[in-house]
Design brief:
The complex is a heterodimer of chains A (371) and B (129).
Chain A: H1 12-17, E1 21-25, E2 28-33, H2 37-46, E3 49-52, E4 57-62, H3 66-73, E5 86-92, E6 98-108, E7 111-116, H4 121-130, E8 138-141, E9 146-152, H5 156-160, E10 164-165, E11 177-182, E12 185-191, E13 200-206, H6 210-220, E14 227-228, H7 231-240, H8 277-285, E15 289-296, E16 307-310, E17 313-324, E18 329-337, E19 346-351, E20 354-361
Parallel strand pairs in A: 3-14
Antiparallel strand pairs in A: 1-2, 3-9, 4-7, 4-8, 5-6, 6-7, 9-13, 10-11, 11-12, 12-13, 15-18, 15-20, 16-17, 16-19, 17-18, 19-20
Chain B: E1 7-8, E2 13-18, E3 21-26, H1 28-35, E4 42-46, E5 53-54, E6 59-65, E7 69-73, E8 78-83, H2 86-89, H3 92-96, E9 105-109, H4 120-127
Antiparallel strand pairs in B: 1-2, 2-3, 3-9, 4-6, 5-8, 6-7, 8-9
Classes of the chains: A alpha+beta (371), B alpha+beta (129).
Chain lengths: 371, 129
Amino acid sequence: MTEANLKQTNLHDVHVAAGAKMVPFGGWSMPVQYASILDEARCVRERTGLFDLGHMGRLEVKGKDAVSFLDRMVTSFVGKIPQSAIRYGLVCREDGNPLDDLLLYKTGPEDVFVVANASNKDNVLAWLRQHAGDAEVTIEDVSDELAMLALQGPKSQAALQPLVKDLDLSEVGYYKFAFGTVAGIDNVRISRTGYTGEDGFEIYFPDEHAVRVWNELLEAGKDQGLAPIGLGARDTLRLEAGMPLYGHEIDLDHNPIEAGLHFGISFKEEKGDWMGRDALARVKESPTRQLVGIKTDGKRVPRQGYKLFHGDEEVGEVCSGAVSPTVGMNIGSAYVPVALAQPGQTIDMDLRGKRQECTVCELPFYSRTRK
Amino acid sequence: MRPDDRKYLDSHEWAKLEGDLIVVGITDFAVEELSNGNEGDLVYCDLPDIGRMVEQGETFGEIESVKAVSDLNAPVAGEIVEINSEIEEHLEVLSEDPWKKGWLIKIKPTDKSLDHLLDASAYEEHIAH
C-alpha cells in the first residue's frame, strides 16, 4: 500500500508538525516515534504519555439480542460483564483461531461497545454481520466518528483530571468506564484501560475535536511530563507487559489458549456454546506449545520470524521482540514446545546461521503491581 | 550535497577508491533512517570476517536499530581485507561521522571501476523520492 492510499487520523498533521516519523500500520499512516523509542517507553513507565489511537476499530453492537449474540461470537462471558465494566475477549473461527482480539464495554443492558484492531475491523464487522442470523441486533461501525486517545503512565490521572469536569477520575476503577466533560465536550467516555501495563485512561469523543483536545491535554499535562508517544514505544510497552498483538502472538495459526489468554475465555455452562469453544477446549486439554517470554544478553534483538533451536532441532519461532528499557535486556515472545517452556530453559535464536542464546522467562516481563 | 569523491548504492552504502582498495560505509541518510536521529537507537553492527570474498551486491553484514535490521551490501566484488571493528562497539561513530571515521570495510576489488554506481547528484535525486 502506498502512502497515498493510507488513511489518516484527524491528528495526522499535528504528528507531522511535531516531528513524528509516520509509518503504515493497519492501513493507516501513524506516528511510530516522535523522538527516541526508548525515551518514549521510559516516559510512559516513569511519567505519562499521550497516544493517538484514532486508527482503532470501534463498533456498537445494539439490540435485544446484542448480549446473547456476542456470547455466541466471542470468547469472554459478555452476559456477566457488569454495567460500565470492560472485558477482554476474542472473536474466533470454529477452529478456535482468532480473527481478532477485542475490548468489550458494557454500555447498557442491550448495548456493547467493541474496540477492535485497525487491520481487522472490516473482517470483524463482516464476520459478526454474517453470523447475526435472526438475532435482533445491529452492528454499527462508529470508528470514523470517534477520536480515541490514551494517556498511559503513573501520572496519567494527574495529567488528565484538570481537563475533566463533573467526574473524579479516582472513582473510575480498573477496566471500568464513566462519562465526564473533557475540555468542554460533554459525555466523553473515559475508561481505565490501556495497552502498556501502566495505569491510565482511554477516552472517546467526537472526532472533530481531536486536535483541540490533543493540544489541551499536552498543555494541561505538561507539569506531569506528558509527551506524545508513538507506536514503536507502544509495542515495546505492551510486550514488556505481556500483552498480545494480533498478527504476532495471535493470528489464524495461533490460538488464544496456547497464547495464555485464559482470562479472556469462558468455558462456563451458562455462557452456552460459542464459536470456537470445542476446538479451544481440546487445545486446553492437550496444548502442544506455549507462548513464553525470552530474554537475551546478546546484542541482537529478537524479531518476528526468527527461528529458535534447542541443539540442532528447530523448536519454535519468535513472535515479537524489542530492546526493553524496563528490563534492561533485549526481550521477545515466542512459541516453544511445552517441554521447553520452563523459566530458565535456554534456547538459541538463529540469525542467518549465527546463534544467540536466549533464556525462557515467564510473561509478563513487567507488572506494575508485582515489582 | 553529499561528498562527490565517492559513489553510492541505492541501498545507501557509499564506496570510495583509496589506492588499490574500495572503502565502504553507509550514508548519513541510512543512519538517520535507522536511528531517526537518536544515536542510542542503533544497537548492533555485524561485520564480516577478513578474507571473505564477496560478489557485487552481496550482503556482507547487517546493521540493527531498535526498530529494524538492514542488510549491508557490497558495492563491488572482491576480498574483504580490513574491517572497522571499532564500529561494532561504538555505533555512535556512524552518527557522528559516517563519511570518514564511520567506514565499515575495505575491499580489494577484482575490478576497481565504480562506474556502475550512483554519483552524488544521482544519489541525492534517489533519496529525494
